Amino acid sequence: MVYFKQLFATLFLISFSFLGCQSQDSAISFLALGDSYTIGERVGVEESWPVQLSEQLRAEGLDVAAPKIIAQTGWTTQDLKKAIAKADLEPPYDLVSLLIGVNDQYQGIDISKYPSNFRFLLDKAITLAGHKPDHVLVLSIPDYGATPFGQQRNSKKISAEIENYNSINKDIATRLGAHYINITPISQKAKINPALVASDGLHPSEKMYKQWVEKVLPITLTEFEKEALN
Predict the structure, then answer these.
(1) Residue 41, SS3 per DSSP
(2) Three-state secondary structure call for residue 88
(3) pTM for the model
(4) Which of 4-13, 41-50, 131-140, 159-168 has the lowest average pLDDT?
(5) Most buried of the four, 44, 97, 164, 183, by CB within 10 Å?
């Protein structure tokens, strides 16, 4: 059994390498869309989850280009829509991620606007992924109510509202066929593990981002395996 697993892994890497050689640029392209949780606020882009994911994919033997990140601290869904429209993009991307909505909640924007804005962004992400929804990763919104920052406010209200936002983005992601990765339970560990929070008491630390990547990596590898074998 071990032999066959090793053989499959070898064939996968050979197949993927062969496919890559057929294109002008063999490196896997990755577009990450979002807000502060995507750029790694307070820990630096090099420790953000998209960069950590790219590094892990390289460790698995895949040729992955540096991720292109369109994200900024404080961005709402509407801000991200405007930024994408202005961005210099070169689709199709082999992988696209989307994590957005916390600032809609934080700024008190009417939640009734979120479904249409998020649906627009996910449709755009799928288009940028070459119309392949299974190459799109939607991450749930972290629960910052569990952080020291959130604990100093109405943490129960924050958590309940984040849950409502996540029920919306999960439903839309599922209906459109994108992968939905629920990292919210990881974010809630911040309440008992200070090491998961950055120095500002609000954003994730590189250790929390690493735990996100541990959930995202197997899904991403599976998709590239399927792509190589088709």
Answers:
(1) coil
(2) coil
(3) 0.89
(4) 4-13
(5) 97
Q: How many helices (H) and strands (E) does the chain have?
A: 10, 5
Is there a contact between 137 and 179 (Cβ–Cβ < 8 Å)? yes
Q: Which of 168, 150, 180, 195 is nearest to 109 (CA)?
A: 168
| Paired strand residues for 98 | 33, 138
The span from the first CA to the last CA of the chain, in angstroms, equals 23
Longest dimension (CA), the chain: 56
- The CA-atom distances, in angstroms, between 227 and each of 128, 149, 196, 230 are 17, 42, 34, 5
pLDDT tens sequence across 53-94 = 999 999 999 999 999 999 999 999 999 999 999 999 999 999
Query: What type of residue is 90?
Result: E
* 197: three-class secondary structure by DSSP: strand
CA 64 distance to own-chain centroid: 16
Residue 189 CB-density burial (10 A; 0-12 exposed, 13-18 middle, 19+ buried): middle
Rounded distance between C-alpha atoms, residue 101 and residue 218, angstroms: 25
